[in-house]
Structures are given as structure tokens and as C-alpha cells.
Amino acid sequence: MLHYLILVKKLAALSLVILVGYFAAESQVHTVKGKLVDTQNLPAETVPVKVKCGSETVNTVRSNRSGDYAAEFPLCLRSVTVIYGDSNYYPSDVASLSGRTSHSITKILRLNDGTNKLTPAEASEILGVLEFFQTDIPGFKEEIIEWAGAFSEERFPPEFRSRLREFEKSAAKIMPKEYQRERHPGLGAEARWSRRSEPIEQRCKTW
Questions:
Q1: Contacts of 105 (CB under 8 A, 6+ apart)
Q2: Distance from CA of residue 207 to its chain's centroid?
Q3: What is the per-residue pLDDT across 56-78, written as a single tens digit (0 to 9) for each?
Q4: CB atoms within 10 A of CB 122
Q5: How confident is residue 194, by pLDDT bands cut at 50, 70 and 90?
Q6: Are 49 and 82 within 8 A, CB to CB?
Q7: Beta-carbon neighbour count of residue 194 at 10 Å?
Q8: Domains of the chain and CATH, by start
Q9: Model confidence over 76-93: pLDDT tens digits?
Q10: Angle at which helices 161-172 and 120-133 cross, to 10°
């Protein structure tokens, strides 16, 4: 009987240790870090890096002058998505990351300056990110608004332009009332989303 009681106590103590270790591990703060470079392999500085647990934004940081970034995030029981850039860049992301561990990610970003046409591979990747946002419109509303109207259709290969138009149509349904479609001086037929409360030269998104 005595041996039995000793065994029960040992098992209880062991279970307690395991539970404490489990909850300690589950409460850890993790980090996603890495380096951002442009297509010329130069550091991409002051680029926003957003970490989302599921559809909830849990941290946003910017890359430094060397292109390095580090964003902490708490334990996430859903998948983690990291979104890189704003409308000055073509969107880039890494999705379906584990929310229980840290990650190291280097990304090549394409500047959205309107000077170069996209290759089919580049267009496919960019549209894949935009269409990923559309799989959860409430959760990625902020990202959809950020990139709505930010691209010149002429930069995309003809076979990809219908997908860009579909994204724009979807975005139009959720744009806040303070935004409107209008033409920026010097852009011919192109029209973009802009805030009504700012001078047109300041509020129009640039490519």
C-alpha cells in the first residue's frame, strides 16, 4: 500500500511538471525576422511588415536601413500570415506559418513605381496574394483597401488583367465612403481610389 501511495505521488508530481512546462511553452512570445531586399538586391528600408494571427493583426513593424526586420507575436493557435509592403510595393506575403514557433524569412520586394512591366510569373504571384486577401474579406479588409487601385493594368500581361479587374470590383464593394474613384492629372484614362478630404495631388495612390 505504501509503495502504491509513493507511486501515485510521483506520477502526480511528474504530471504537474509536464503541465507547467506545457503552459510555459504555450505562453512564449515568438519572432518572425529576416531581411527585405529589392529586385536589385539592395536593402528595402522602412517597409511595413504586418503579422496576423488568423485574420487579426498582432504586430506591425518596419524594416531598418539595412532591410532587417523583427516582429514579435504571441502564441497563435491559428496559422500566422506575414504581409510585406504597402501600396508603394507590390504585395507579398508568407501564409500558413505555425503560430507556435519563430521564423526567419528573407523576401525580395518589387517596387510599385510603374517603370517596368511584370513577367507572367510576377503577375501570377502578385494576383495570388490579392486573391488570398479575398478569401477572408472581413479579416483582410485593411489590406484590400491598401492595394485597391494601386496598380496600372498596363503593367500586367494581358492574360492576367481580368483577374486584376475582378479584384478591383470586389474592392469597390467595401471601400469606405471617404474614398472615391477619380482621375489624377497626367494619367489619362487611369482612375484610382483616393480620399475625398485631401488635395488630389496628395491623395492619389502612386504606381
A1: 32, 33, 34, 82, 94
A2: 19
A3: 999 999 999 999 999 999 999 99
A4: 18
A5: low
A6: yes
A7: 21
A8: 28-113 (2.60.40.10), 118-207 (no CATH)
A9: 999 999 999 998 999 999
A10: 20
